[in-house]
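Meet our chain:
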Amino acid sequence: MAERRNLLAGLGDNEPEGQGGVDAAVKASAALHGFSVPDSPTVDQTTTARRVRRTTGRSVPFSVKLRPDTMEQIYGIANLRDIPLAQVIEEAINLLHNETR
């Protein structure tokens, strides 16, 4: 079997300075464009990412994966009452909210 060629050959000293290190070329480019780069990237483990909800009006896109039986129930209610899927979900949330009060 033929040996694979190295796609990184000839790139020179563009190798990272070790695990977690920042490449010298990245530092030089950042300094040239007015940015600063820390010596080693750090991640704050105490904070969690928050979801950001961007709204442009009443309707916003919402995509989920559901079990087939759950999807059949939602479609069944929507078709029976001739209402949009979103209205079925909104009404179910309102009922759940009122029930837990």
